[in-house]
Amino acid sequence: MSHYCDLAPGHPFHGPYHDREYGFPVADDTALFERLVLEINQAGLSWLTVLKKRDAFRRAFEGFAIERIAAYGEAEHERLLTDAGIIRNRLKVEATIHNAAVILGLQAEHGSFRAWLDHHHPLSHDDWVRLFRRTFRFTGPEIVKEFLMSTGYLSGAHRDDCPVHARILAAGPAWVQRF
After folding, report:
1. What is the 3-state secondary structure (H, E, C) of the chain?
2. Which CATH superfamily is domain 27-154 in?
3. InterPro entries in the record, alphabetically (predicted)?
């Protein structure tokens, strides 16, 4: 079975994501929200499709501005469903808007989305899935796993012998930190 570390290097879309983002700790709530939205939109599609549409997602969702997206009404919802640059799935669009509002609540209660994640870390994958399903929309086991691996909360983003793995370890992802 091929690993992402075998497929991504040198690829115009996968390569930069693999080398600079995948598995590295993410501190910024906007970047965490973007990653969650992208993982949700990947469901049923290839990651390459999502990466190719990433810039269009950023434009359509105003740079993933959480507060703005949480306030989206019917006009913005319809605008998104007619935007050919993004994945026009009603459930995924609704989940993005809903989840933005949820994150605002988490920020009010915990100070940030990241602080909420840190508050619950470490959990098993199954416990993370249960927590995400109680908290967010459109977050099944694979979406939760990829979101948490991609943001440094679960191990497994890279093989141990991948050159990027050492850089991730040096960045101090949550899955190696001892509490």
Report:
1. CCCHHHHCCCCCCHHHHHHHCCCCCCCCHHHHHHHHHHHHHHCCCCHHHHHHHHHHHHHHCHHHCHHHHHCCCHHHHHHHHCCCCCCCCHHHHHHHHHHHHHHHHHHHHHCCHHHHHHHHCCCCHHHHHHHHHHHCCCCCHHHHHHHHHHCCCCCCCCCCCCHHHHHHHHHCCHHHCCC
2. Hypothetical protein; domain 2 (1.10.340.30)
3. Adenine_glyco, DNA-3mA_glycosylase, DNA_glycosylase
How far, in Å, CA of 149 to CA of 165, rounded?
A: 12
Residue type present at position 126? D
**Which residues are catalytically annotated?**
17, 39, 47
Residues 6 or more apart whose CB falls under 8 angstroms from that of 134 comprise: none
For 23-82, write each residue's pLDDT tens digit: 999 999 999 999 999 999 999 999 999 999 999 999 999 999 999 999 999 999 999 999
For tokens 């509002």, name the residue: 101
Q: Is the pTM of this model over 0.70?
A: yes
